[in-house]
Amino acid sequence: MLSIAIFFLLASVYLYSLLGGADFGAGVLELFSSKSKKEETRNLISKAMAPIWEANHMWLIITVVILFNAFPEIYTRISISLYIPLIIMLIGIIMRGTAFTFRYYDAMKDGSQEIYSKVFTASSLIVPFFLGSLLGAIISKKIMLHPNTFWQAYLAPWLNLFSISIGVFVVTIFAFVASVFLIGDSHDVATRDRFIRKSKRTTFIMVASGGLVFLSSYLEQNDFTQNFLSNFYSLSLIALATTTLPYLWSVLKKGKVWESRIIAGAQLLFIIAAFYAVYFPKVVLLGDGDALTLLNAAAPDKTVSALAWALLFGSAIIFPSLFYLFKVFKMSKTISVVKDH
Length: 341
Prior knowledge:
This protein has helices at about 1-30, 35-50, 55, 60-70, 70-80, 85-105, 110-140, 150-155, 160-185, 190-220, 225-230, 230-245, 245-255, 255-280, 300-340, and strands at about 280-285, 290-295. It is mainly α. Strand 1 and strand 2 form a beta hairpin. The N and C termini lie far apart (about 55 Å).
């Protein structure tokens, strides 16, 4: 049963990175769009996201629930040591959702729409950045069980070059995923070509920011780079993510929407799996050389078993419902496009 809980935990992290990542990345793309194209980008994002954006955070909720119930020690340590980035991230999620709701559904179109848009785009950048810095913190070996100062307890784990570089990397990954996914929602050649160019640019930025992660690891003198480069599975997975890029660009050029989305989703999976391969089953690397893992920090068997059964039964309801949601959304959007023409 512990294996089932671990599977759903890892799957939830991936699905949040994929679906929520495309959601956040769309806001990042809007933030960095040129003034002449910002309104066009804003309208495309609103139409693509409006009916389904609420469902994306379900995967984050499932992740938290699994950690809280099946791995309470890990949940506790992250909640205490990384309280500040967690709070900033959650505030960003709330502000972003609120701003998007008012921007898209507000009947009164006035100057407040611009304020909503600024809050939306800023939050779209803040949330993935702090999500990445939180990820960097749990593997940086800067979390102390018995810290001596406020800095050591609450700031040092995430306010360092390595964690910041991972924050930047996560932002670029989400922007890349969003640029590919939004191509399928572009209904004219010019917009589609613009987002194809965006996907290529974000790819190069993503690769550069990934190099920054390795460089910062070397400068910070932690063992991430050494562990990564000496792990056969991590190197193989990154090689797969890299070598599929030309194929992705080829199918994008041919206008194969779902094929390009599947490839981009697979590349994201390869990147996350490469990270998992380095540390699994470790989750939180502590400053004293110890670690909290998915094995030594698990809850009692009865608790894990009850959660595993709940996840299995819940997934039988959730996945068909989500499939139906996407199907209905795509059908309604296709009908509206036909009517517009």
